[in-house]
Specification:
The protein has ten helices and ten strands. The chain is α/β, with parallel strands linked by helices. It has one domain: Rossmann fold, CATH 3.40.50. The model has no long low-confidence stretch (mean pLDDT 91).
């Protein structure tokens, strides 16, 4: 097996333009199969744009984006969205207010032509520790943590191999954040998932990801291990500054 085969995500020299303005400048990184990689940076650093390219939501890019060893076109094929799913930042905003949990979960199966719907819904709700009674409730009837569990279940129900996590706990109370992070870690191990996480919170990324990249002004200025980050073994001034600002890291 080659290195390319072992990497579930490979990004080489990614550049993104909005109009005449280049917002991402030659970003490269890899995520091994079954691994978890984090991208951190302040607002406007370009981290979310990188994730949106990988999700197929931005098409004004150049470079090479590979998923499961396959170079991706700008317009992704239908089966891409079965393999790659995304969990968004705001669990309330990402759930349709007039849809029950049941409808939210079955829609991806219907769109992708996947059968055995009832069993899959029951199993994925169990995977994310949602009570059976929540199946026919609406988003406003759920707590913030439950809503994010629904969002995670929706991402997992089509059995993807790659999950993109866009600040998945930033909209939650601190008391709930650790529960969701630990759930995500358990699910990755249980289902052999590959994660890419974007966050401004170094402590969250260091908890979830053994490797992370630091972005600043559209560039990935440093890639380092969570262990080196915790120990203060940083090389770029931006990484050092972010570490100093993140009082939760210790």
């Amino acid at each position: 097996m080659t290195d390319a085969d072992e990497n579930m995500i490979g990004v080489e020299n990614l550049r993104v333009r909005f109009g005449t303005h280049e917002v991402v400048h030659g970003v490269s990184f890899q995520v091994p199969r079954g691994g978890s990689f984090g991208i951190v940076g302040e607002s406007g650093s370009g981290k979310s744009t990188v994730m949106r390219v990988l999700a197929g939501l931005v098409d004004t890019w150049t470079g090479d984006v590979r998923m499961s060893g396959v170079s991706q076109p700008h317009k992704r094929p239908r089966d891409f969205f079965r393999q790659v799913q995304m969990v968004f930042q705001d669990p309330y905003g990402s759930l349709h207010p007039s849809h029950t949990v049941n409808r939210t979960l079955i829609e991806p199966l219907i769109v992708q032509g996947i059968g055995d719907i009832d069993r899959r819904v029951r199993e994925v709700m169990s995977d994310v520790a949602l009570p059976t009674a929540a199946r026919y409730r609406y988003a406003h009837q759920l707590s913030g943590g439950q809503r994010q569990r629904v969002a995670i279940a929706r991402a997992l129900i089509s059995q993807p191999s790659i999950v993109l996590l866009d600040e998945p706990t930033s909209a939650l109370d601190v008391s709930v954040q650790a529960e969701i992070l630990n759930l995500l870690m358990d699910l990755r191990e249980e289902h052999k998932l590959t994660y890419l996480m974007v966050s401004h919170n170094l402590a969250v990324v260091a908890h979830m990801c053994p490797q992370l990249g630091v972005m600043d002004s559209g560039e990935m200025v440093e890639i380092l291990s969570a262990e080196d980050l915790r120990a203060g073994r940083t090389k770029h001034p931006r990484t050092t500054r972010l570490r100093e600002l993140d009082v939760e890291l210790e």
